[in-house]
Amino acid sequence: MFDLIIRNANLPDGRLGVDVGVKGGKIAAIEMALAATAGEEIDATGRLLSPPFCDPHFHMDATLSLGLPRMNVSGTLLEGIALWGELRPMLTKEALVARALRYCDLAVSQGLLAIRSHVDTSDPRLVTAEALLEVKEKVAPYIDLQLVAFPQDGYFRAADGEASLNRALDMGIGIVGGIPHFERTMEDGTRSVEVLCRIAADRGLPVDMHCDETDDPMSRHIETLAAQTVRFGLQGRVAGSHLTSMHSMDNYYVSKLIPLMAEAEINVIPNPLINIMLQGRHDTYPKRRGMTRVRELMAAGLNVSFGHDCVMDPWYSMGSGDMLEVAHMAIHVTQMGGIEDKRKIFDAITVNAAKTMGLEGYGLDVGCKADLVLMQAADVSEALRLKPNRLCVVKDGKVIARTAPRISELLLDGRPASIDIGLDYIPQTSAP
User: What is the pLDDT of residues 104-117, one digit of tens each?
Assistant: First the structure.
């Protein structure tokens, strides 16, 4: 007797028409025609069943604040930074909590059950830290929320940057952040990387730095981050986010840099939506894409995962909390449209992102947590193409969200009465 059985599901690894049995909040069986009963059964009807989506790079303290105190008219990074500077003194804990919880509602509906959020520590009030620590506790039953102490105005550049970051860590924020390219000088940026890695090593914490989010090919703080990672023995516990300067670097230098990053076991987190939107703004034509070298980094064995970064905030007026939208953009901007490419792209918002976040019990194997998402698509490639409805979202073996399938009624003589976008248009090579 199982608590839940999802029957006739297709899995991301290519297995078709399998049954997944859940008991005690964990996956207890994955078999063809599972001979058992359950308290609840769901017929997947040949659709994709996946572990939940994970977002390893987000800013929950700013999300859903679009329009406060005004709109970003230019849509640029610099105006976004200025806007956040205007909004930050007006922030209240209550408003921050309310917006963050609303975003978490949206995330659950999209099958997004793990989020790493950077928390701005540049305001010495630390109202952002207080609010998101409260949100972390509130959403713990359904979202794994990790928090990064992020000195958004610069660890050295902000007047109280050093003290505020340390206070945020003392409050319980569990990851050390940084933004070396936003310090006043290259030397200060380099120094901040060393100091922040030392803090992480002393406290036994991971590191996740905004690093080289610029078109400047001479912004090379990722090299310093990799070196300090090895120096302090932080291999596998450090993430470099954005890394957009790599799109402009000399190929010979990159041929040295990538092996150094691999030696340090750096987790790489590009943010396709925001990177393609904000980078290359000083170019006329040809215009740079603004994405780091995803294909090359993956080929070198680095763990690459994608972040959403922003949803309806001063920097990015778009977004829907859908990691498939992130991956969809990644396919286009990286030109990774091959069959195996798409599997790697899907991994970047699931298993790779879970590895970046150090999630335990994640996956779709017997013994893993029964955290699952059933989609209105036949397989991984179709999920990436369609960004389909999440038919049901399961947490610890219990359904926590449902969405009706997208079925369009047609009123055309001689044509079908309805179409199912998820099954009626699959290519011949996809699952039946």
Answer: 999 999 999 999 99
